[in-house]
Structure formats: C-alpha cells, structure tokens
Design goal:
The complex is a heterodimer.
Chain A: E1 2-10, H1 14-25, E2 30-33, H2 59-72, E3 76-78, E4 83-87, E5 93-97, E6 102-110, E7 114-116, E8 132-133, H3 136-139, E9 147-151, H4 155-164, E10 170-174, H5 184-191, E11 196-199, E12 202-209, E13 213-220, E14 226-230, E15 233-236, E16 240-242, E17 272-274, H6 286-308
Helix pairs in contact in A: 1-2, 1-6, 4-5
Chain B: H1 2-8, E1 15-20, H2 25-41, E2 46-51, H3 56-61, E3 69-74, E4 77-83, H4 88-95
Parallel strand pairs in B: 1-2
Antiparallel strand pairs in B: 1-3, 3-4
Helix pairs in contact in B: 2-4
The chains are: A alpha/beta, B alpha+beta.
Chain lengths: 309, 100
C-alpha cells in the first residue's frame, strides 16, 4: 500500500503532536508516525503543573488532549509503528513499515525526542525494574519505607529526590560533581530536607544483589575511597540521550548526537526539520517542545509553499 | 486471585503477564498494544493483566518494582521478564520460541 502526505512528523511527543496540530490546521496532509506510544516522555510524568493555561494535569491526559486536537484537524497518527526503512536525503522522503506500507512525503519533521541516560556500570541492566528505576512517578510507590539512592545533580534529580521522600524513609543523593546544576530553590529544598542525605563527588561503580538490588559500590572521587552501600532502590536522573540513531548518515549532529538546527528549526537537509528533545538546545520542557513543534511546522509550511512555486 | 494466578501460569502455552497500575501513564500506553497482540495471537498465547494495587501478593512474590513489567510464563516457569512498554513485534518475537 502506498500513502502520500505533505508532511510526515516522526515522533508523537509534545513536539510532534504540536507540529501535527499546526500542519493539519494549515491544511497540510499530515501523518504523525511513531515507533512508541503517543505522548513520548510526557506520559512518564504524573503531574505537569507548569504548562501554562492548565493548572495541573497528568502527562498522559495532556498527551491525549493534544492527540485529539491534532486528529480534529485531520491529522493522521500511527503510533507503535515498526519502521523498516527511511529515506530522508531525496526530495521525496519515504518510509516503509513492516507491514509493507510505503509512505511518501515532501517534508519531514524529526521529533523523535530522547530517553533516560543510563550509568553504564556493571549490574545496571540486570537490576533494571528490580531496584533500579528511571521514573519516580512510576516506581516510587514500590519503595515505601525503604532506603533509596538518587543519582544526579540537576533539577530533575533534586526534584525527584524530594518527591521520593513521600515514600522512602531515607534518600541519599549521589552526585559526581562538587556542585549541583540546579535552581537555587531545588537545591535548598533538597539540602534542607530531613530525610535527604547528600554525597558529593561520588559515583556508583557497580550494582549488587540477588533477586533484587541489595547494595551499590560507591566511590568517592577525591579520596578514591570505596564503600559497599546498602540500599533497596536506586533512581537514576542523569539527563537524556537524543533518539537520533540512524540520522548520522545524513544530518549534522553535534558531539552529544543532537540534531544541529537553524533558528527556524531547519536542518542541513532540505525538507527535513527537527523539533523537541532531539535537537541541539539548552532546555527540555514540555513547553519548549511545544514551541519547537510550532516553529518547525511553520517553517515546513513555508518550505512547501516555496517548492510549489 | 492468588490461586487462579498460580493455575494460569501452569498453562503449556506461553502466558504473557502485564503488571500494571491504573495510575501509571506508560501502563495505559501499553494497554492497546497488548490488546492488539492478544487478538492477533488468538489461542496460541494467553494474555493476562495484573493490577499491582489489587494483587500486591503476586507483585511482591515476583519482586515487581517497576511498572509496567512484562513477564512470560510457560508451564509454571519464568521465561522472560523486563520492565517498560513492549511493542507488538517485540512481544511476538518473545513468545515465538514457546509456541506449540
């Protein structure tokens, strides 16, 4: 089966869904294509309280509203798709799905987002879901009255450490640097919290346990001292890696593998635009993703208009 | 529930178990995928969902500390276990070695 669109948006997080809304509303035949569920990383968030115009909403609910909004303007969405082949360099962009469906478009917006960074130390894969978590809202409840460790020193690490004190009896923050990279408010809240202990310039070098996690090896970077630290759970919040695998063939990526974009969110490949957590930028929020989706959609529309002249 | 869960996993067919909670976003995203997988596989596999809040003993017995967690049992043996949203193709590949 062959399908033709003006624009294919790759990714169904807030950036992709917003691009879908703007494109469809501008009467561009649009398909949002995603290899994951609708909502992207948003659905991992229990409560979003800083999305202007909405006092408080779960990430899953917000994603569903954006989805309905896009569909109401005629945007098509294929989520959980298995994409076999993708061609971005040609003037006509194309995708082949595993059921043989061939999709063609004149422009593409890459809104593939990112995923949690892993520590990459021994035992991490083994104890994922057996004590190691990357999502406080999903898994916090399993650690009620337990002692846990939070790894990281940014806003998400500190905010999640504080929120995990609702469940855990004690939270130890482990951070590799000598200072936190977070807002003053987040730092003060964590540092002054009676249930939170802090280990600076310290890293986890291994995870140990049997059925589930029992301890971690901690290493103090300054002194080189190591210790076996007993813990029931470890939550890792050390940032994100962009989902840009396979794009290095044709797109300019920076040293962090993020897509290099111009201010109008065009890339080095004509007809390919990018938005959201996979681009080279400073802040990754639902609101910034939504802004990116808007800009990329408007730029794509301008590109399509010029092509048709 | 406990007795029937123990019976269900004795099935000679692969039994796919989705440990979930009603308040978890990724679990909700998993639901339609699992539904579609179940209807496509028909009688070849058995698919069940375990609400960890309603069935804490089962979740505790298997040390579920992350949701969603997908497990595959066959004839009472654990064949697979991994947290996170699973795609349909992935599930098909996972059960393939255990199909009659």
């Amino acid at each position: 089966m062959n399908k033709k669109y003006d624009v294919v948006v790759l990714g169904a997080g807030p950036a992709g869904l917003t691009a879908g809304i703007y494109l469809s509303r501008a009467r561009q035949k649009t398909l949002i294509l995603s290899d994951g569920p609708v909502g992207g990383q948003m659905i991992l968030t229990h409560e979003i309280a800083n999305y202007p115009g909405v006092e408080s909403i779960s990430g899953y609910q917000l994603a569903n509203i954006m989805k309905k909004q896009a569909q109401s303007f005629g945007c098509e969405i294929i989520a959980n798709a298995s994409i076999q082949k993708m061609e971005l360099m040609s003037l006509k962009k194309s995708f082949v799905l595993d059921d043989g469906t061939r999709i063609e478009s004149d422009a593409v917006i890459l809104a593939t987002g990112g995923r949690s960074r892993t520590l990459g130390v021994p035992g991490e894969a083994q104890f994922k879901g057996r004590g190691i978590s990357y999502c406080a809202t999903c898994d916090g409840d399993f650690f009620t009255d337990k002692e846990i460790v939070v790894v990281g020193g940014g806003n998400s690490a500190l905010d999640e450490a504080v929120s995990l004190t609702k469940y855990a009896s004690k939270v130890t923050i482990v951070h590799m640097l000598d200072a936190f990279q977070a807002s003053q408010h987040a730092i003060e809240e964590a540092v002054n919290h009676p249930k939170i202990d802090i280990r600076m310039e310290t890293v986890i070098t291994a995870f140990h346990g049997e059925e589930s996690l029992q301890s971690v090896d901690l290493k103090q970077l300054k002194t080189g001292e190591t210790e076996v630290f007993k813990t029931d759970g470890v939550f890792i919040f050390i940032g994100y890696v962009p989902n840009t695998e396979g794009f290095d063939c044709c797109l300019d990526l920076n040293e962090r593998q993020e897509i290099v974009v111009r201010t109008d969110l065009s890339t080095n490949v004509p007809g390919v635009f990018s938005a959201g957590d996979n681009i080279d930028k400073l802040y990754r929020q639902v609101t910034t993703a939504v802004g990116d989706g808007t800009v990329a959609a408007l730029t794509a529309i301008r590109y399509l208009t010029e092509q048709k002249k | 529930m406990k007795a029937s869960f123990d019976q269900i996993i004795q099935d000679p067919r692969p039994v796919v178990v989705d440990f979930f909670a009603t308040w978890c976003g990724p679990c909700k995203a998993q639901a339609p995928i699992l539904q579609s997988f179940a209807s496509e596989m028909g009688d070849a596999v058995r698919v069940i969902k375990i609400d960890v809040d309603q069935n804490p003993e089962v979740a505790q017995r298997y040390g579920i500390q992350s949701i969603p967690t997908m497990m595959i049992f066959q004839a009472g043996n654990v064949r697979y276990r991994q947290p996170g949203v699973h795609q349909k193709e992935q599930l098909k590949q996972l059960v393939r070695p255990y199909l009659a």
